[in-house]
Amino acid sequence: MANVYGTPESPQNPPPEPGPGNIPPVVERIGPLGREADPKARMWAMFCHLAGLAWLLPITPAFGSVLGPLIVWLIKKNEFPFVDDQGKEAVNFQITMLIYGAVAALLMFICIGFVLLPIVMIVDVVFLVIAAIKANDGEHYRYPYPLIIRFIK
């Protein structure tokens, strides 16, 4: 009988010890946190991240980026644990981006904000799209640490 490493097990041939070079193929594919299998949970987690684009709508300019993910997260967090995890991540990221945008807007008085505000907007959209794609694939995505302040744990 073969083990997860693909080698036959016997008393003379024990399974190799797990280590950096001996990771079973299943663990390599799934990763340390595992993947979400439920397609509905993955879809709603993706919507949590994409709802951060609400700041592009003319009716919800500034706080829409926080309200969009917050609403989706609050509605679906009790139904899907994956949505609870990714919703917290999306809300934290959008609150952080709102703070960075406000600081950049204040710095417009000394002309630095005219450069910083477009950078904040581009970073917001790029990481938001990456997170939405990863959530749709079922991965537990985390925004880069120096970029995000985790207000909701």
Explain what this protein looks like in three dimensions.
With 153 residues, the chain is mainly α. It folds into two domains: 1-30, no CATH class; 36-147. 53% of the residues lie in helices and 0% in strands. The longest helix is centred in the middle third of the chain and has 26 residues, at 81-106. It starts with 24 loop residues before the first helix and ends in a 17-residue tail after the last helix. The model is unreliable at 24-32 (pLDDT under 50).
List the keywords:
single chain; 153 residues; mainly alpha; 2 domains; 5 helices; 0% strand
Cα(first) to Cα(last) distance is: 45 Å
Indicate the multimeric state. single chain
- Overall geometric form: globular
* Alpha-beta content class: mainly alpha
Number of individual domains:
2
Rg over alpha carbons? 21 Å
Mean pLDDT rating: 81
Characterize the main sheet: none
Q: Percent of residues in helical segments?
A: 40-55%
Q: Segments where pLDDT lies below 50 for 5+ residues?
A: 24-32
Q: Strand portion, in percent?
A: under 5%
Order of helices and strands: HHHHH
**Tally of individual helices:** 5
